[in-house]
Structures are given as structure tokens and as C-alpha cells.
């Protein structure tokens, strides 16, 4: 190729490359511009408070007094002396049982309303209805359902001859937490059912037809086709349920206030109490940091279980 | 041309200055935070109107928060440096704010206006005195009493209210055994309202200088054991230890419970819920020994206020005879303003309400659970869960008392 021609080609290529680079640069600029408001809100309402909690957790701090360095005092208090911290941590892990139970029920319900039954649209709506309800309303409804004297559940159990004496569901140490968990499951299952239903409807019917021709039983089809292909939807439900169990403040607050004793205390309700009832903002800061670390740990574990790339975004070239 | 430009600039500067001055004038503002009284808005507007007659250049903003939201709201406002100027505070929560400098010591105002101090019940004022300073003006007040169901008492052959602790348990047992679904006794339990049960057995929560727990005694273990046994047998309704406000009141309103320990305001609420509850069916007496736990609200001033004198003027107007009479008449409630309370008792015709008001003011020197300490909430949180577990039969009483003692002492040591 003559030298002149080669240099022209090179110039053209460089020109095109520059154009592409400029276009890409503009696109990136636009992306950041669009992201900025959301990132600023995230920074102001998430990152800065979290950092501030971190600072507080190493200080003796109260609203009207100058802060003093506390070192690891609050962490020592928490891990060594504070029974309530351990109780609330244990309860938070127990409360996470909401995740597998509600997902299990949601899978069954989704399979049922996905089958060709009469009025399935109505069933779907009824099952989903609990989700848009305000959590406070759910708490009040369930408090009355569980009521020892006038509650529907005790009434039905007595009518059925299953119990002689009414059960103090929310007042007893043994039943309070399971009762709140049941209410939480009731509320979230409808939402999970919708997610799973969408997952089910995305499974190509041809897979089932092929499996039937090959002689696979319904059970085998469920294990080998439905469940594996529902995995992404189940994972989404699982993540939502775990987040909900860490942040489920309203339901506990309305139904039991963390009691009796601390039988239904979760980390989140304990943090609130430490800050706003006991005015120990510094200690509440330390509790928040521990909860955050746990939360990150669980998210990483979840990501690992999901193959290590949950939340990955592919940007097309 | 230059002159015109200068004139325009001067006019603009004038407008801006006027605007700034106006803004500054509008910034003269007080904020009033009340505790769960949205139905009393008309009166709050009346307070504000009266205040504006005295200070026409001030604006007053009124905010109301439910009891469950109040502390969180006030705390966050304090941290933000925008605490409401005038605050209605329940119970002993004020002591914490007073101790950390969040509330204004009103003593200089009381000293400058001795007639204000003279309005009030002297024992009552002690409820808002911390290290010699008075931090709140009494707003409304009630005290725990013993209410008994005359019909159930008659049915089991009891001729009057119990005279001591053992009799309370004995009567409660008899009533519980007299019919299905009945229990003998119920109490409110928030804010130390149950403490008369311990006070009547000579149990002290803290030592005299409030540096150590003093309740881990054989007597305390015995009392907790007896209460737990009575709860287990059904003589004491277990909602006593688990319910908050609505639940025990609703339970007593059913008419199946023999005795109730609660304050006057709660009793009047029950009377509003249950047609049967009146002077013929219920009796109200002092707790044996004259003990009672006050449940009081006061009006204080945040120390962050820019206008302490005007804020005090506001508090004084709000708590004057005119408005406190309106408060007393509207809710049939005591105010510790002696003239207002006397007038209220004189004009109350309902015998049960009259007896409740009179009894609430008796033996003010025997008001218990009035530890004026900034650690009140923390001590309560350290004390109650273990004792509650023992009362509900979940923990050995001696172990529960010892655990509670160690936790209370830890709170006290940390504060030192």
C-alpha cells in the first residue's frame, strides 16, 4: 500500500475512533448526570448517616454535651454485658425464618393459581391483597386476631374443641415471636407469589411437553424443570425477605413493642429503643454498625450462593 | 443615566433590606409541642391568641405527637438544634432533658413571680424539681388508685376493699374462683404504675443517694413470688404484666375483673367504654397505705429557645386559671393548680368521678416511684424485663431479682 494511502486510512480510522470515543464520553457524562441526583440522595440518607453512626459508636455522645472518645467501650458493653443485644440478635435470626417459610408457601400458591382452575384471577387478587396493606394496619389486625379474650383465633380454636383455655399468643414468651412471624409471613407471601408466578409463566411449556413425552412424572417435572428455572425468582424473594426481616420494625412495634420482656425484640427495634427511649445514641450507633456488618455478610453470602454475580449489569457496547 | 442607575440600585437595596427586616420580624416564632392531644386544638389556638395579644410580633406554631412518637420527635429535633420552644412532657422524662441541659430552669421566673408558685400544690411541684431547680409548670395530673367492682365483691361476700397486700391477693383469688373467665386483679404497668405493689411492702428501688439498687431483699423475692403465683392461678390477670394501656383497660371494662390499679384518667376512659361502670357498680379508694404513683404532664421550655422570656409568658398564659379551668372541665382532670382543682371537685356531680378526684389529691406525700433522676428510663428498662419474666412464671423470682439488681447497678455505675 502506498505510504500516502496508508496514512489516509490511518487518519480516517483515528478520526472514527475519536468520534466513537467522544460519543462514549458524552454517554458516560449523561449516565453520571442522570445518576447524580439518586447518588446524592443515597449519599445524604445512607452513606453519611452510616459514617456518622460509625463515629458515634466510638464516642460518648449526647445531644447537648461535647463528645468524648469512648474507644471500644460500647462494643465491649454490647458483646460482653448486654443480654438484650444477644436476645435481639437471636430473635433477628429466628425472624429470618420468614424467608424460607413464606417462599415455600408462595411456591405452592403460585403453582396452584398458575394451574387451570376456575376463578384463578380472583384467587391471585385475594392472595396478593395482604401485601399492599400498611404494615401498621396488618399489626393491628393481627393483634385483634390473636387477642386472648375477643380474638378470632382463640374463638375458632375453642369452638373446634382444640383448646380449653385461651392462648395468650402475644403475651406469652413461647408464642409471641412465632405469632409475629406468622403475621409477617401472611403479609409478604402474596407478593412472593406474584414474583414466582411471573417466573413460572416464563418457563417455556415445550419443556414440560418434552418431559411428558419422555415419561417424566409431575413430581419429577417440578424438581427438574420448575424449581431450577424458578431459581432467579426465588433468589429475588429470598433477598427481599432477608432485608425485610432485618428492617421489620413497624410490625413488631405495633404488635408487641418487643415484649413480653424482650421475647420479640429484634436488632432494629432495640436500636430504636436505645436511641429514642434510652437516649443512648452512641450505643445505638454501635448496634447499627454491628447490624450493618451482619447485613453485608449475609448479602455477600447470598451473592456467593447465587453464583457470585447477583446484581451484575451488562452494559451493551 | 448614572443617576437613574444609582436610583434603581438604591431602590433595589431598599426593597431587599425591607424584605430582610420583614423576614427577621417574621422569624420571631415559638413552637409548641403537645403530647397526644389533637382533640384539644381549639384550646391551643386560644392559648396562642392570648399570647399574641401580649406579643403581637410573635408567631406560634403548634405541633402534636402521639405518646409513642413524642420522644423520637423531640430527640431528633434536639439533635438538629431545632427543639420546640415549649414542650408538654409526660412522667419523669423531663429529668433526663433537665440534667443534660436541654430544659430551661424556671426557678428565676418563679422567684420573680412568687404568685405563680403559690398557685400550686407544693408536693405536686416537687415532681418537677431537680437539684433545686423547677423545670416544668404542672399541666395535668392523676395518681394510681384502687378501683373495685362492687358487684363481684358482693357476689363473693367481700364487704369492702382490701386493707393490705395479702388481702389484695386473697380477694383476687376468691373472685377468680367465683366464675369462669373471671380474674381478681389487674394493673397498668407502664411508667412504674405498678410500683405501689412493692412500695406497700416497704421495698425501695434505690438507696437514698440513688447510687445503688436497694430492692434485692428477701421481701422483694417474696412479693414477686406471691404475685407470680397469683398470676399463674389466674387471680391476677396476666395482661397486668404484658398489656400496655388499652389492653388492661379494655379487660377491666368487660366487668369480669374484681380490682383494678390505674390512674383516674384511665378509669374515666373505662367509664366511657363500659355503660355499667358508674358509682353504683365501682368503688374507688386509695391504695392500702395511701401509696399512689403519679402520672403527670408538665409544660417546660427547651433551653435552646431564642426567646426564653416570651416562652415563659406563653407557659404562664397556657397554665393560667382560665385555661386550666377549661382543661379541668373538659377532661375532668386535676391540674395541681389548687383553685382550679377545688372548683373542679366542687362542681363534679358524678360520685365516682368526684371520689376519684378527691382520692387522687389525698396523701400527696405518699406518691411513690417519683425518683427524680435522669436515669429513670434506663433504670426502668434494666429493672422491668427480668421482673416481668418472673411475674409471668418464666424465671425464678430470686434469680430475676438478682439479675435486675445487677443490671440496674450497671446503669448507675455507667452514669458515674
Proportion of residues in extended strands of chain B: 5-15%
Q: So, CATH architecture of the largest domain in chain B?
A: 3-Layer(aba) Sandwich
Q: How many E strands of chain B?
A: 10
Name the poorly predicted regions of chain B. Answer: none
The first-level CATH class name of the largest domain in chain B: Alpha Beta
**Which fold name is given in CATH as the topology of the largest domain in chain B?**
D-Maltodextrin-Binding Protein, domain 2
Total domain units of chain A: 2
- Global Rg of chain B: 25 Å
Q: How much strand content do the residues of chain A show? A: under 5%
CATH H-level name of the largest domain in chain B... which superfamily? Periplasmic binding protein-like II
**Number of β-strand runs of chain A:** 2
**What proportion of the residues of chain A is helical, as a percent range?**
over 70%
**What is the structural class of chain A?**
mainly alpha
- Can you give the helix content of chain B as a percent range? 40-55%
Rounded mean pLDDT score of chain B:
89
Order of helices and strands of chain B: HEHEHEHHHHEEEHHEHHHHEHEEHHHHHH
At the fourth CATH level, what is the homologous superfamily of the largest domain in chain A?
MetI-like
Describe what you observe in this structure:
The complex is a heterodimer of chains A (317) and B (416). Chain A has 317 residues and is mainly alpha-helical. Chain A folds into two domains: 3-40; 74-305, MetI-like fold, CATH 1.10.3720.10. Chain A has 13 helices and two strands; from the N terminus they run αββαααααααααααα. In chain A, a hairpin with a 2-residue loop joins β1 and β2 (65-69). In chain A, α3 (83-95) crosses α12 (267-277), α6 crosses α8 and α12 (267-277) runs antiparallel to α13. The relative contact order of chain A is 0.12. The mean pLDDT of chain A is 85. Chain B is α/β, with parallel strands linked by helices and 416 residues long. Chain B has two domains: 30-141 and 295-352, 3-Layer(aba) Sandwich (D-Maltodextrin-Binding Protein, domain 2); 142-291 and 368-415, Periplasmic binding protein-like II (D-Maltodextrin-Binding Protein, domain 2). Helices cover 51% and strands 15% of the residues of chain B. Chain B contains 20 helices and ten strands. In chain B, strands 1, 2, 3, 6, 7, 8, 9 and 10 form an eight-stranded mixed sheet that branches. Chain B has a two-stranded antiparallel sheet with strand order 4-5.
